[in-house]
Amino acid sequence: MNKLGVHALVWEAGWSHEECARAIAKTAEVGYDFIEAPALDPSLIDVDFTRRELEKNGIGINFSLGLDFDSDISSGDPEKGRRGKAKLEEAIAVCRDCGGQYIGGILHSAFGKYTQPTTAAGVAQSVDILRQVAETAAKSNITLVLEVVNRYESNVLNTASQAVEMCKRIGAPNVKVHLDVYHMNIEESDTPSAIIETGDYLGYFHTGDSHRGYMGSGSIDLAGVFRALVRSGYQGPITFESFSSRVVGQPLEGILGIWRNLWEDSHDLATHALMYTRVQLKAAQEAQRQAERSKLV
Ligand code: MN
User: Fold this and answer.
1) What is the pLDDT at residue 291?
2) What is the pTM of this model?
3) How much distance in Å is there from the Cα of 59 to the middle of ligand 1?
4) Mean pLDDT score of the chain
5) What is the total count of domains within the chain?
6) pLDDT tens for residues 52-76?
7) Which residues place a Cβ less than 5 A from the ion ligand 1?
């Protein structure tokens, strides 16, 4: 069974005690299994407070982050590589202390618009550092999931097949691929095929829609996406991610280009996304069974 989660930015822009408590309580109230909290700066997360709120509300947590250009482990610069490694290790400690199992996002490069393509040496540095960081993560049963994002947010992983290749080069069982329908809709030739070809390398999934607003209100064929997830046998976490100028702050607002107000009511948005995801998963599972039931006697 896939655990279903919601990104904290649906509720709150930051992770102060008040924001953390509200976001966790609302996530639980709607009925999600976990919240995904941004850890762009892991030092801003009060782990004891967060863990208590999670326990009080009976939900889990996972984290996501993107490195910045100053800590870019694909830069080829040893000093930036060292800072990136330290930031990833700090996120692992926060995830462990909060009881999380996954750290996703742009762990492999800076999170932002590059003006040059990546280099073989840059990719090799990223692979080497992620292999070391994965060893630390494994000690706390944490899986690192490398998010495939569009060309304006990284120059390293823009397609699922690149991420599978990166996982193979890293060669650690706790490093997997993190796919996101919004980015796939921009970069993949065929999103369902890319999901199926990722196969067992898929470790984490972000849902949403083409404009990052309400699921089903954009232009992505979400029925096809969920059928591909079910056909591939994916059992891992699925997080609903949505951004509106209603709830967002810097630096995310600037990097992601969140200029429009795509929704007003976080509760309505999150409730709809949970129902929509459950309905799509159920329909995809029934479609799969229909094929099995329809075998020629
Ligand atoms: Mn995402």
Assistant:
1) 81
2) 0.97
3) 21
4) 96
5) 1
6) 999 999 999 999 999 999 999 999 9
7) 180, 206, 241
Residue 147 is a catalytic residue: yes
pLDDT tens-digit readout, 20-38:
999 999 999 999 999 999 9
CA distances from 273 to 153, 184, 290 (A): 25, 19, 25
Specify the CATH number for the domain of residue 156.
Answer: 3.20.20.150
277 located within any domain? yes
**By residue range, what is the domain housing residue 143?**
4-289
Q: Looking at 12, 36, 53, 241, which residue is catalytic?
A: 241
What is the bridge-based pairing of β-strands 238-240 and 202-207? parallel
Q: Which two tokens stand for residue 68?
A: 């910045």
Q: Report the C-alpha gap between 89 and 93 in whole angstroms.
A: 6
241 is catalytic: yes
Q: What is the DSSP string of the chain?
A: ---EEEEGGGT-SS-SHHHHHHHHHHHHHHT-SEEEEE-SSGGG--HHHHHHHHHHHT-EEEEEEEE-GGG-TTSS-HHHHHHHHHHHHHHHHHHHHHT--EEEEEEEEESS--SS---HHHHHHHHHHHHHHHHHHHHTT-EEEEE---TTT-SS--SHHHHHHHHHHH--TTEEEEEEHHHHHHH-S-HHHHHHHHGGGEEEEEE--TTSSSTTSSSS-HHHHHHHHHHTT--S-EEE---BTTB--TTHHHHHT--S---S-HHHHHHHHHHHHHHHHHHHHHHHHHHHHT---
> What's the one-letter identity of residue 32?
Y
**Is there a domain that residue 83 lies in?**
yes
Distance 149 CA to ligand 1 centre (A): 7
